[in-house]
Fold:
Amino acid sequence: MAGDDDSSLLRGAQHGHEDALRGLINRHAAYLYGVARSLTGDEHEADDLVQEAFVASLTAKFRAESSVRTWLVAILVNRSAMRRRSSKRMTIGLPDEANQPAPPTSEPIKADAKLDLAHMLETLSPEFREVVVLRELQGMSYEQIALTLNIPRGTVESRLHRAREQLKTRFKGYFDDV
Structure:
C-alpha cells in the first residue's frame, strides 16, 4: 500500500479494504489531528473530530477538485462547525459571557513566558480561527483554504486580514519585553 496514491487508497477504503483505510489513516491522521487540535484547543475533541472525518470519508463523494488531504481537512472543518452549532444549541439560555473565551490578561507578560497560541486562537471567532489555523499553522494556500471551507478566495483573504488585525489589537504589547 505504500506506493498507492491517496485517491487509490480512498477508493479502496470506501470499498471496505482495511489495508487501504489503514494506509489513508497512516498518511493523514497526524496532520488532521494538528488541524483539529488547533481548531478546538482540546485533545479529546480533536481525536473525535479526526475519527469522524475518516468515518465520513468512507461514504462521502470525492470529486478530485483538490487533493485527498485538502478534502479530508474540509470534512474535518465541517464536522467541527457542526459540533460548534450543536453545542451552541445546548448552551442557549446561558449569559453571553459564559460562551466567550476569557479576555487576555492586562498584566505584563514576562519575557520567558511561553507563547500561548491556543489562548490567542480561542479569542477569535470560529470563522477567523479556521483561516488562521489553515493558513498560518497548516501552510495552506488561499485557494486550498477556499476549497476546504467552500468560500470565495476573497472571503479567505478578508477573514485572514481581520483575524490578524484582531490578534494585533488584542495582544498589543505581548512581545514588547521579549
Residues 91-115 have pLDDT under 50 and may be disordered.
